Amino acid sequence: CSTSKFAARSMSVPYNTTTTAIFETLEELNDKKARQRMPTIVFLCILIAFGVIGNIVVLVVYGLRYRPSTFRSYILTLAVIDLLSCLIAMPVELVDNLYPLQFFSEEVCKGGRFLGHVFKIGSALIILVMAVGRFRKICRPFSKQISINQAHFLCALAMGLAIFFAWPNAIVQGMRKHYFDGGVIGYDCSVDDDVSKTIYPFIYAIVLFTVYISVFSSLVTLYTLIILRIRSHNNAEQKLKRMKINPRVTKVMIAITVAFIVSYIPDCIMDANYTFNQGNTLPSTPLVLALLPLLARAYFINNVINPLIYLIGETKFRKIVKLSMIWVLRSLQRRDTGDVFAASFSASDTFRTERMATYHKTSSSNKSQPSGNHSGQVRQEISQTNT
């Protein structure tokens, strides 16, 4: 009996020692790879922080302070997609870079990559819908325009198409094994081992590449025609105002499109190189290993930069954000001084005060103008704000 116990004990010690050694070695390999990806980790953390705050601000301001319009519908849809990307897709990619050889769940990998591609493709298609609407408004002003209900339908259709193009990702993506010396095995969220040797990843990559190239080409064509149309008329901005088309909205849409294309180009180039060359052909230098994961996720900039574009290009949005910040700072200051009555001064009171000041300023500057012209100017400004 004692001999059997000793034998069992002597067999268990090497097994546990070997298991511990493998686990520690895998941790060391993972930490080494994670340190190489530190620029990507910092990059994603910054994007998540700014993206969540910025897109929530966009949803609140455009949802509560703007009148219904097609432009508002597109902006709100993009903000929802961008916010979900910051809350779901980016954290999954952050975990993938923190644990490049110790990814913990195949379900999280498949689900996160699937939803990430839904948001990625959906954002591209929504921007394309925006471009089509702006093209019809400027280049086909007398044809039937897209209504608000039609804009909602087109946004829903775009998301449906995004799901259709993204669902193969739930099959292609999965756990991929990496083998190292000493029998160490690491797990990465990448192309699933079950399909990595088949033709399906190649076909799916070709399909996605075709979708993005088609969207890029359509956007460049549409906005080239829009810009040429605007430049073909003298005093184009006054002409757009007479047509009740806000030129600032067009500039904002162009800026959104440029940011989208620029942020997506690195990932598309890398995917094309990997697909057509059947693997990564770049040298494995420390600089390349640090930059490749970052460039592959540069498209996330598109989910964060839109609030900054609105802040720069939209006067009304900028004014509301500025007044809101002033109200928050004043409320905090008054609360610190114990002025409870002053702290209850609401944001709507701030907006009303600003509107009254703007009204009196406009009235005083237009005393010499006929009242009919002044009312027409006010109606024109209101229509431009909501175009």
From TrEMBL:
Residues 356-387 are annotated as: Disordered. It is a multi-pass membrane protein. GO terms for molecular function: G protein-coupled receptor activity. The keyword Transmembrane helix applies. The keyword Magnesium does not apply. Coiled coil: none annotated. CDD domains: 7tm_classA_rhodopsin-like. It holds the Pfam family 7tm_1. The chain crosses the membrane at residues 41-62, 74-94, 114-132, 153-172, 202-228, 249-266, 286-312. It is found in: Membrane. Keywords: G-protein coupled receptor, Membrane, Receptor, Transducer, Transmembrane, Transmembrane helix. Residues 360-387 have a biased composition (Polar residues). One of its GO terms (cellular component) is plasma membrane. This is G-protein coupled receptors family 1 profile domain-containing protein. It comes from Magallana gigas (Pacific oyster).
